[in-house]
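Quick question: what would this complex look like in 3D?
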Amino acid sequence: MFLDLTEEQKLIQDTARDFAKGELEPVAAQLDQGCDRGLLLANLKKLAGLGFMGLNVKEQYGGTEAGVVAFSVAITEIARACASTAVTLSVNNMVCEVIQAVGNEEQKMKYIPKICSGEYPAAGFALTETGAGSDPSAMSTQATKDGDFYVLNGSKIFITSAPYAGVFVVWAVTDREAPKGKGISCFLVEAGTPGLIIGKEEHKMGQHASSTNELLFDNCRVPASAMMGKLNDGFRIAVAELTGGRIGIGSLALGVGLAAMDFSTRYATERVQFGQKISSFQALQWMVADGYTELEASRLLLMNAAWRKENGRGFAKEASMAKLYATESANRACYKAMQMLGGYGYTQDFPIERYTRDARITSIYEGTSEIQRLIISREILRNFS
Amino acid sequence: MLIVVCIKQVPDTTQVQIDPVTNTLVREGIPFIVNPYDTHALEEALRLKDHFGCQVAAISMGPPNAEATLKKALALGVDQAILLSDRVFGGADTLATSNVLAAAIRKLHAEVDQVGLVLCGKQTIDGDTAQVGPGIASRLEYQQLTLVDKIVSLDLSGNMIRVSRKLEGRHEIVEAPLPAMLTVVRELNRPRYPKVPMRLAAVEASVEVWNNQVLKLDEQRIGLKGSPTWVSRIFSPERVQGEILGDGYADPAGTAEMLIEKLLAKDMLPI
């Protein structure tokens, strides 16, 4: 058993870390406060240029073909500096992967290189609806066949990167009579398609620089060739791809948790109270020990899930376990970090309050902690029945 | 035209400590990095390559594990990377080092393409002498332009280069015919990040190794034998005590002014 990263994976981690330290960390607070969209897009363009948009995508489509473990460590390094940039990166990679997994050759050649090269600043994953969150099969957006076209009507919500995405993977109901989840299909919809409207941007608690919008379809006509995968087979695709996305979000949460613990631990070795550094108090030593132990456990769970995916093993339960544990331990790490900084941690002069806000969503999006527990327990209980 | 960049693998001195008992560097577990000034030399060479289409070769003298440094240069886009490595090169001072580097440049000039520019960092962060670049220039009889913070113009057909040199409190614009050796400062540029696919390709790429059977240098002029100087002692410089200016509580504005005056006088504030 070999738990170390390969030479290649270390190089990718190293490249991501250098970029994050040099380009993202200095502007992360500014991005959080001012939502400087231009700056975010400029950084995304640079990351695309370096090869980070299609880490697990074949070279023939412009990807880096570096694997899932490399993807995970890269997202963690980027998130240590800027969670908003990391989530955009994670979703872009996920969209590349879904097109690679189920798109036909023409669709792959048309869209993946544009995402990988940065020609499209981002790509969107449009599944969630107001009435279909944890239960996506309850969606109501419709795609009605009209000759060689499908006409989409309905709306999506919480769509990451919507205003600057070049293409969206959109799920819609194509057979209303079919049993739940059996009548959904998947489409590729380009930005600017008439009838595709980018709705209002949500005012979120954190991850401010990443835009999250409503998406409206008002008689949005797409050619029948825009369908990805088989008719009425879309729900299975969504479930499969969300599983991979969980590795991305878990890795992101790990990065935020590490950033919080690193900052607060350094602070504890400098801050003096009662005539001594506060790191000399056992109360803080235990926070350091617990925080880093949980993050290390997160890392190993993520590496396991990523390795299994990379090597063609089943990884649904492992990805859920990693996502569940990494996101919740990142939240706990932020809580501890703020305790360690005391009142200063609660101010915007220090990054801990930003980490706390950025971490909070990770145990909600890409499947809530409760949904992860459902997936995990269902798979375990199956073995006992 | 060929541009040769001289780079060195150095311990990350931000992480180096000196053993208080033996007075030697604690090298255990210290990561190696490309000498930071050299990364700016490399970047400038790559920019000239992007602009003029000239070729870039990176050379480094060091032990076999210095190959990692050259692979980083390959990942950034240099055309050729050569490690100058041989036991007889070891223990070299700046004179012996510049003999080996100059010989390698001569060989590249003869066998690859006419060398127009040699770029070096202004100094290394471990040796800190700033002598190797000028040493190479004098061995090769090239023009030497040190402390360059800007290449003002490069005229390849007229064989002329004009640069800005960063001196204390002033800049000097100088012009020289090619071939020339430049040592560069950090202000020259902002180094690019290596692209992931190129870094991965560099893992597989091979770095040429030239030993003394290739360079055929007189052993009296290289390595320990060719080094008239040696390190007799290493010590941590005493930390110079800072000073307390004015009284920040009684007169914050006046104190701030004093501080700014002081920093301006020391050329520590960008204007």
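Answer marked as accepted. Residues 94-111 of chain B form the longest helix (18 residues).
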